[in-house]
Amino acid sequence: MRYLSWAYLAVMFGFILLPVAVLVVFSFQDGRLPVPPFNGPTTEWYAKVLGDRDLMAALGNSMLVALLSSAVALALGFLAAAGFAQTRLPGGALMRGLIIAPMTVSYLIIGLGLLQMFNWAGVRPSLMATGIGHVVINLPLCFAILSAAIGAPQKSALKAARDLGAGEAQVLLLILAPMIAPSLAAAFFLSFTFSWDEFIIAFLLTRFDVTLPVEIWSMLRSGLSPETNAVGSLVFLVSVLLVVTLELALFRKASK
Amino acid sequence: MTADVEIRAVEHRFELFTALHRIDLSINAGEFVVLLGPSGCGKTTLLSLIGGFLTPSEGQILIGGRDMTHVGPKLRPTTTMFQDYALFPHMTLRDNVGFGLRMRGMARRARDAKAMEMLAMVGLDDKAGRKPHALSGGQRQRVALARALAAEPDVLLLDEPLGALDLKLRRQMQDELKSIQRRVGTTFIHVTHDQEEAMAIADRIVVMNAGKIEHCGTPEEVYLRPRTLFSANFMGELNRLPVRPDGSGVASPLGPLPVPPSEGILCLRPESVGLTGSFSLGRARLTEAAFFGAHHRCHFAPLSAPDMRLVAHLPQGSHPEIGAEVELFGRDPVILPEAA
Fold it and tell me: Are A164 and B100 inside 8 Å of each other by CB?
């Protein structure tokens, strides 16, 4: 029975990680095709990727869009969560629901909607437009995470701070933000990861400057190559680093 | 540093529920007032109104002669010591206590000095660099008090601050609160549902019930000469005898009693019933007795009304054998009309 459960665990991890493992292994393929048999390791493809100006520009773009859109989504989500936690508005529950609603809509639909709206408003497809799109998908996430973090202890601390003469900005920056810092970091890193990986909105809303997933997609159109594997591995590495940072910074602290 | 508080015809409604019915109350500068009552009586609502966390539906609140009815907590000369302490977990005790001064723009050096002074007052100056989670409940309590007082309020509001402490610590904190209040001279308004706590610390007790003030007076007045049956009951245990006027005295289930004639309920505290007193309650048989340390708690069945039970607190070592018949006496009688 015990061996069975270990075996199950191994199969489960295999199921989750095998595709990624294959991707990474064949990024070191010494040959033109990332398929078996494995011809022995080379870092040639990585050198090629790092020397590819378009790819590196796309990577920079992705980083920029992810950082800025996550920061904006975090700031807006924080303000909304703080506001809803402290005031009772008529129809407050409905408004909360409306903020969270975009989470349930597929990115494709949101992307189409944004495309049409930007067209109508005269906003050209650009990194800016993509960034706005990423704020749209990440704001509900930030709001949900931060709302859950503001409970009775936070509310009474805010009340106490006001009682001691703090203004609204001071209440938010000196009391609320430090008290929910772990959730702020979690919301930021998750938003960053989602923006970093996001393809369909970026695909619809960029034209000349593209993000990394869009660049990879255009590489794929010319067929499989260990080079795409190498890019994929690098993207995966960034995501892993984010997750590990998050794990170390937050969940360790929370369990202490 | 201290101010009087004037509550004028304040009424407060939460949607359909009326929490306070036209309350009038004057609190003197430097007074220690306790708002006492069962949960839901409106005492916390009244405190929130004074602190500015709620705005009354009607009426006026004056602090130090200035109308504060529509002023928010930030600008009121009040600070609150909250039930859950509401300390800032990410700040050291020094920064917690100095927060009010920081908000007033005091420089770090000056406010740290003041914070240390306040922490020394509550005996925690050696822990100034720690954070609240490293403290026990009683210590957090003291930090909350120091923080509220450091802002130099004219009126300090205390919202059941001792509720979470164990009995021994609570008694100790009561003594401390009282002595600190005397030292700083700030007006203290304290909310509790514990009548012993109220008597231990208050200059004046305001007994509240169902959104109204039942009685307002010194602990002695409220305990010994209650104005309503509710406050008599709430302040402590009672023997209750229905009486009606009869000649120069009253008629009761125990027979005629020589107390001023009046219609209502004759109330006698257990310690006002005993083997000596100012008037006889007739003979009675001891049915049960228990030793409570400071006194014996005895149940007597009066011979003239064997189904009734009178509770008496007799001094240590002085209670008769169970089953013995003795003559009981009463003192400090109060006759109150039945609940209106």
Answer: yes
What is the CA angle A207-A211-A212, rounded to 5?
Answer: 135
Same domain, B318 and B195: no
Q: What is the pLDDT of residue A169?
A: 92
- Facing A178 at nearest CB: one of B51, B90, B104: B90
Verify that B185 and B265 share a domain, yes or no: no
Q: Which of B74, B84, B90 sits opposite A165 (nearest CB)?
A: B74
Omega within 30 of 0 (cis) for the link into A37: yes
What is the rounded distance in angstroms from the CA atom of residue B136 to the CA atom of residue A154? 20
Same domain? B90 vs B133: yes
Is beta strand B187-192 parallel, antiparallel or unpaired with respect to B32-36?
A: parallel
Residues of B with CB under 8 A from a CB of A: 51, 53, 72-75, 78-80, 82, 84, 86-90, 99-100, 103-104, 147-148, 151
Q: Which CATH number covers residue A97?
A: 1.10.3720.10
B154/B139 same-domain check: yes
Number of domains in chain A: 1
- All residues of chain A having their beta carbon less than 8 Å from the beta carbon of residue B89 are 153, 157, 179
Per residue in B225-271, pLDDT (tens digit) is 888 889 898 898 889 888 888 888 888 888 888 888 888 899 999 99
Per the structure, the count of domains in chain B is 2
Kindly report the pTM of this predicted structure: 0.80
- The closest alpha carbon to A52, from A231, A191, A184, belongs to A231
User: Which among B51, B53, B151 is the nearest to A165, CB-wise?
Assistant: B151
Q: List CB contacts (< 8 A) between A254 and chain B.
A: none
